Amino acid sequence: MDKLHKKLAAYKDDDEVKEVPVIKLQGYIYSWGKNKDGDVSVGNNKNCLVPTPVRGVKDKRIVSISSGGSHSSAVTDDGLMLIVGSSLHNKLGIEDLNLTFISTFQIVPFFQDKVVRQVACGEFHTLCLLESGVVYTWGGTLHKKLGQSSNKPSAIPALMEKKVVYVDCGDFHSVALTEKGELYSWGGGGSYNKGQCGHGHLHDIEQPELIKFFKGKTVQKVSCGGHHTMALTSTGDLYGWGAGYYGECGFGEFVDSPLPRKVTINTNQRYYQEVADEVMDNDGDFTPYVIDISCGGHHSMILTDKGLFMCGYASHGQLGLKSTANQADPQFAYTLSGKKIIQIAAGWNHSMVLTDALDVYVSGHGLLGQLGLGSEESKTGFVHLQSLRGKNVSKIFAGGNHSWVILDYENPVNHDYSPPSPLRSYPNTPRAGKSRDTSPLNGSRARLDKDDENLLQKHEKMLQIVYTDNEMSHRFIRYTIPEAIEEPFQAKLEEFIKDLYSFEQGIQFHKLQLDTEVIEEVNGFGKLISPTNKKNSKAFTLMFVCDLRKNNYETNILAKKNTPSLQVMNTIIGEMHLVKESDLRKDETQRFLCHWMIAFIGRFSDVVSSMKFFELRPVNFS
């Protein structure tokens, strides 16, 4: 065994895989995470749980990558634009494409005779910046997020003479930064408009408008989250605006803001004080100076010369603070202190960092493999991505539920690699700062189907399953909530629904309705009743229609099909099984088939006063 392999074999970490593979170079670009629509360009549509060599980039040098919810784009050093993923909403920009998705990077013909500088991928649309400063957009035009009405690549006239140097976008808004440091934005999002355009109102905007707040200031960097935005000025001042319910804007309050508000980092927080002596300048100053920003779905990463700070949504551990408490004030990432971080990248619910030793660390949601750790497990603290050890990573990228790295093309492998020192552990003291972890709506789970008995209610829930000749599964969740929490509950529910769509490829559509009257069986007869007898409460029914055949369940799982029923009876429409939640959790097959119910209970049992679950399931899944 040579010197390198001896070093690697000796490296162990309780949170990570102990077996250390020999360093092998299979390419210069690696990707992992959600791949339902071929999003990460590995030649298939199966989720990637570990860094996997990217296809379609042979003989090309990639310099930047952007990912949206279901598509990704890359730019080469000679200005060529590549794209991959879902073609829904025409966001790939390839005219006359008759495929629902492509799983390997393809050149976008429209830009073959142009020099592309940068691309930004949103949930439904795409932006492209040319070296000349011209900005093109295409894809879905809902909520005026494109700046034009064409579904093919089309230049934005309002930006033609502005000399744009950078573009970015969220789900329903877009921004453009000029060489003069002026910031333009457009879009909105209708009911999703939280002020992320920064103009002081909640109206959707069809054409790019200058954000007047920054008049007299020079914006150097900007980053768009799902429904929020952050910008850094030449004087080192940081601002956040838009959706702030989870604290993602970082200005210290859990509220939305349609205007930019200054973000201040509290240097008196407990864990930053722990390392004050280490980060202090020669003149005794330990005030952090912001270097870079990266916004995820509902969280933000702030890189300073003194270390990394995190704020926003933490339910999946994406803040890397060993906690699931949302943070409105930027919190110091204590475990990474002592590591010099040179790059950051935020995905929808996960985070990545790159150190000067070229080690990659990840935290957050792992259900779709976006952490690259070889499992679907989420992490509340940063973990070293060991599969990239010995590879000289030059750039990292994250977006949606995807992750990417680019290796150094000249020197991709470090044959003298030494494993990094262990990360620091938090002292057993409460974390300082303004957090929101007391609300029951913040108790959501990091994995949809994780078997956690601690989340079971005192009164166990039941699932009624009726096996029918239908080809589709029809799932119904009936629940009641207090009117006072309807708005924040809705935000959480939307996140829950989005996670289910990501987890199950077979979901066809869903519908949510307010129940004013429902029919229930009473003494063998259907009776029209009020769905709730509680004052100041509302009852809803959430329905999902799912093609279980498209969910790619493993053969060995479905081979064990056997419903662990408490009671079985015949009905007009088919055989009905009454099943306890605890039995569903214990049975491997049912845990897969019924994760939608288990997940709902885990997320909302503390706030939903009553919940009932019913499914019409195809008989071949009995």
Explained architecture:
- The chain is mainly beta.
- Among the domains are: 138-211, no CATH class; 265-384, no CATH class; 438-621, Alpha-Beta Plaits.
- It is built from eight helices and 38 strands.
- The strands form nine sheets. The chain has a seven-stranded mixed sheet with strand order 32-35-31-38-30-37-36. It has a five-stranded antiparallel sheet with strand order 19-20-21-22-29, with no helix packed on it.
- A hairpin with a 3-residue loop joins strand 23 and strand 24 (350-355).
- The protein is globular, with a radius of gyration of 25 Å.
How many strands appear in the DSSP assignment?
38
CATH topology-level name of the domain at 438-621: Alpha-Beta Plaits
Biggest beta-sheet profile: 7 strands, mixed
> Which of globular, elongated, flat, extended, rod-shaped describes the shape?
globular
The CATH class of the domain at 438-621 is identified as Alpha Beta
Low-pLDDT windows of residues:
1-21, 437-458, 524-528, 554-561
Gyration radius, to the nearest Å?
A: 25 Å
The portion of residues forming beta strands comes to 35-45%
Percent in helix:
under 10%
Q: Termini separation (Å)?
A: 53 Å
What's the number of helices? 8
Topology, pairings included?
Blueprint: H1 3-9, E1 29-33, E2 48-53, E3 62-67, E4 71-76, E5 81-86, E6 101-107, E7 116-121, E8 125-130, E9 135-139, E10 154-155, E11 164-169, E12 173-178, E13 183-187, E14 205-210, E15 219-224, E16 228-233, E17 238-242, E18 257-263, H2 270-274, H3 276-279, E19 290-295, E20 299-304, E21 307-312, E22 326-332, E23 341-346, E24 350-355, E25 360-364, E26 379-384, E27 393-399, E28 402-407, E29 435-436, E30 462-468, E31 473-482, H4 486-503, E32 507-515, E33 518-522, E34 525-529, E35 537-546, H5 555-558, E36 567-570, E37 575-580, H6 581-586, H7 588-593, H8 595-604, E38 610-618
Parallel strand pairs: 30-38
Antiparallel strand pairs: 1-2, 1-28, 3-4, 4-5, 5-6, 7-8, 8-9, 9-10, 11-12, 12-13, 13-14, 15-16, 16-17, 17-18, 19-20, 20-21, 21-22, 22-29, 23-24, 24-25, 25-26, 27-28, 30-37, 31-35, 31-38, 32-35, 33-34, 36-37
